[in-house]
Design goal:
There is one protein chain. By secondary structure, the protein is an alpha+beta fold. The protein has two domains: 2-67, no CATH class; 70-111, no CATH class. The protein contains four helices and four strands. It has a two-stranded antiparallel sheet with strand order 1-2. Strands 3-4 form a two-stranded parallel sheet. Helix 1 (23-37) packs across helix 2 (50-59). The chain is rod-shaped. It starts with a strand and ends in a 16-residue tail after the last helix.
């Protein structure tokens, strides 16, 4: 399958399937569509199939660039679960105060008399 898409707009210029996936086959399909639209190709992003590289370099005479989607997908997939697990642990543990904090708060409450108001800072904010 070959898909020619205008990246800025998302417009599908050509989408076709062929059993014979050679440069000549793709060249014939692409040339007809580009001629009908009166446009040209500036660069071709592909999965690095030899026929598509040849189409870009010799047929369309444009820059051939690799598609990084599959590479990035595999890369992210390899560490996403580990990062997600650590993030979940950090989030769940940050919702509960630590033991030293809870102990300090209990001690403060015991030491402060119930009828005594909290002291004010110089700015008028409670301490």
């Amino acid at each position: 399958m070959v898909v020619f898409q205008d990246l800025p707009t998302g417009y599908l210029v050509l989408e076709d399937v062929a059993d014979d996936r050679t440069c000549a086959t793709w060249q014939t399909l692409v040339d007809a569509r580009l001629k009908a639209l009166g446009t040209e190709v500036l660069y071709l992003v592909s999965d690095r199939a030899k026929a598509l590289i040849q189409l870009a370099e010799k047929g369309l005479e444009c820059l051939s660039m690799p598609d990084f989607f599959h590479l990035m997908h595999d890369l992210v997939k390899s560490y996403a679960l580990a990062i997600g697990r650590r993030l979940q642990q950090a989030t769940s543990s940050s919702r509960q105060p630590s033991k030293p904090y809870r102990a300090t708060e209990r001690a403060r409450q015991r030491l402060r008399p119930a009828n005594r108001p909290r002291r004010q800072s110089r700015r008028g904010e409670p301490r």
